[in-house]
Recover the amino acids of this structure.
């Protein structure tokens, strides 16, 4: 990262896909200073290309829609569809995932302008034990996704957009405006220890 001003951060995230941004959100909400770096010109990574869809079994949207699901069924599905022998090394991770993924989805909705909705997509191998025909795939509602730059059209490279000098954000703000790159990576947001902005603040906040 030659050419960038030296700085300190409590929590460094490399890559701005769904996983990285969620980790950054959790760290920031806990009072840590956070820096996210991204090699692409706009934030989102592969998650932006996919529209931000995520597989969350036993989520609150399915429950509100009257769909039945459980951690046990999700775990049964993962074990049934995984390649032979994978459970020997992955079962602990699977159990942790089905136990915490629903709470993660609620946390993201409660602390950002993003809101998710069920899609009509089934589990990829819904015929296997524990599989569901609907209720586990959720995607961001379009208006909320646009406010955070998580749409396909914003994921297309536009080198001319990189024009602003590197700045340090004084608070956690949405990841929408890239800063000047250096050696292939650039910080797209630095901040922490302050409340996540509301949807109204998101639309009016400047970039980094």
């Amino acid at each position: 990262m030659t050419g960038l001003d030296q700085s300190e951060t409590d929590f460094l995230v490399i890559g701005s896909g769904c996983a990285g941004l969620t980790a950054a959100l959790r760290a920031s909400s806990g009072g840590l200073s956070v820096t996210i770096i991204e090699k692409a010109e706009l934030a989102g990574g592969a998650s932006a290309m996919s529209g931000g869809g995520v597989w969350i079994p036993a989520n609150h949207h399915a429950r509100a829609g009257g769909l039945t699901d459980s951690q046990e069924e999700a775990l049964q599905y993962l074990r049934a569809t995984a390649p032979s022998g994978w459970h020997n090394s992955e079962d602990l991770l699977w159990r942790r995932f089905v136990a915490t993924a629903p709470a993660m989805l609620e946390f993201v909705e409660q602390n950002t302008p993003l809101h998710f909705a069920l899609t009509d997509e089934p589990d990829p191998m819904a015929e296997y034990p524990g599989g569901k025909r609907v209720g586990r795939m959720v995607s961001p509602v379009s208006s909320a996704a646009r406010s955070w730059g998580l749409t396909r059209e914003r994921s297309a490279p536009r080198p001319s957009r990189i024009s602003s000098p590197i700045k340090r954000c004084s608070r956690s703000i949405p990841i929408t405006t890239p800063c000047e790159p250096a050696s292939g990576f650039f910080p797209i947001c630095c901040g922490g220890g302050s409340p996540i902005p509301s949807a109204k603040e998101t639309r009016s906040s400047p970039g980094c």
Remarks:
- Residues 150-186, 188-208 have pLDDT under 50 and may be disordered.
- Residues 62 and 135 are 5 Å apart (CA to CA).
